Amino acid sequence: MKLLVTGSSGLIGSEVCEFFGQRGHEIHGIDNNQRAVFFGPQGDTSWNLQRLRDAIPKYHHHDLDVRDREGTLALLANVRPDAIVHAAAQPSHDRAASIPFDDFDVNAVGTLNLLESARRSCPDAPFVHMSTNKVYGDAPNEIKMVEEETRWEYADSAYAEGIPETLRIDRSKHSLFGASKVAADVMVQEYGRYFGMPTCCLRGGCLTGPNHSGVELHGFLSYLVKCNLENIEYKIFGYKGKQVRDNIHAVDVARFVEAFIETPRSGETYNLGGGKDNSCSILEAFSLAEEFSGQAQRHTYSEENRIGDHVCYYSDLRKIKEHFPTWDIRISLRETIRQLVEGWLQRQKQA
Description:
The protein has about 350 residues and is α/β, with parallel strands linked by helices.
């Protein structure tokens, strides 16, 4: 199989490249290291690109910006991949407010460029789009919650399993990032429904793993662990540090991508996170990081929460498991944090 992956040097993109590359597939990666532009030197992913080149014999890199419409059209016409995984994005809802044109052009227009290029050159290739749970805006905050000792939790039994795909995506505050990702999400659905292309949107929770270049504005667990190991003060934004996220290891994401490519559907949406079992609050994450690192977590607190942020969010995985019964979460939250600690320590040695 010939697989094309955008954002190939990022967390999910690189994990997908490695997952399929180790199985002998030909990989074409698209990445121009925009993460370093968005977040500075800490967001640089060039180290990950070199890792892919060393690890995958059939890896071909394309230094292309997905905003380059003619370049994208030409590349897909030349490569004609058998499947596409679109993981390139401007990923921070905080950063989006200061770069609204870049945010929308990368997230929405870049996605359209890829979809239309695929329709013209390889319309039967499964198209997996990495969307986000931010497409729901702050609608999850309207659910009745209860404050527990270390976390907020849903008090409404209708959400005992988490947030389903039926939750509305409009009439809520998203952040500009969330709005640009809604545009991309709906367009991916439309190319599936209108043109019959095999497409899906994966509305991710906190996607993580040891290959994440986590920064304060994007990469919750990765950045938290980095702060712990380097004795950096971690800043909590509101909700008493009890805000909850579900965390899924990038390998489990790659495993789902494989399942979808094998039996694709058209115009589907799936909430893809760790679910309730792999959820934690910031305070709970502090405790886990401290357990594996042996170091106390330094932190400060601001009463002001991030605009459009979720108080509690974890994914209802019932739909995705019903459609793909052979897939499930295999890597626990504890193991994920252990790997994050080990990964950052390894990078410190190599620096």
